[in-house]
Fold this sequence. Notes:
Layout: E1 37-39, E2 45-50, E3 53-58, E4 64-69, E5 75-81, E6 87-94, E7 98-105, E8 111-113, E9 127-132, E10 138-143, E11 151-156, E12 162-164
Antiparallel strand pairs: 1-2, 2-3, 3-4, 5-6, 6-7, 7-8, 9-10, 10-11, 11-12
Amino acid sequence: ELSxxxxxxxxxxxxxxxxxxxxxxxxxxxxxxxxxxxxxxWAPLVAVGGQRxxxxxxxxxxxxxxxxxxxxxxxxxxxxxxxxxxxxLAGGGVGGASGRVALFDVKSGERTEFTPRNTxxxxxxxxxxxxFARDGKGVSATTDKESQFRRLAYxxxxxxxxxYLTVHVPWDVE
Length: 174
C-alpha cells in the first residue's frame, strides 16, 4: 500500500528496481530533452522522465534497470523520490489538456494514482510541479484544478482532498 506515510525507514537495504519492464515503451528517432530527473536518497539510482515513461538507471554502471510507463497522460514533468527512497512520485501530463500525479513502488513498479485521471467530458486538470509534503502524508503540487490559474495545493494522502495555499494570488504560481 502506497498511501499514508512516505517517510518510513528503509528496512532490508535501499530500494532497487526488481522485475520491471526491461526496455523503453517509447522509442524515437531523435533524443528529446530531459524534463525531469531525480536521484534516490539511498540507492545508486536515478529516474529520468521521457516521453510517456520514466527510465530508471543505476548510477554506478549506467545500466537501465527498468521502465515505469507513464503512457496514458503524456510527459512526466516532476519526479521525486520519497525520503525513504521506496516510492517515486511522477507528476505531469499534456500541457493545458490533462495531467495527474502517480506514485510508483520503486522495487515492484506498482503504480498508484494519487490524483484522479482525467476521463472524458469532465474538467481538464493540469499538475505540473509536485513533491512529497514535509509531513510525509501528502503531496504539494501546482494545479489549475477548479481555477483558471495554477495554484499551489496540498493534497492529503488519505482523503486526496486539495487544500489551496495560494487562493489570493490572481496569476499562475510556478
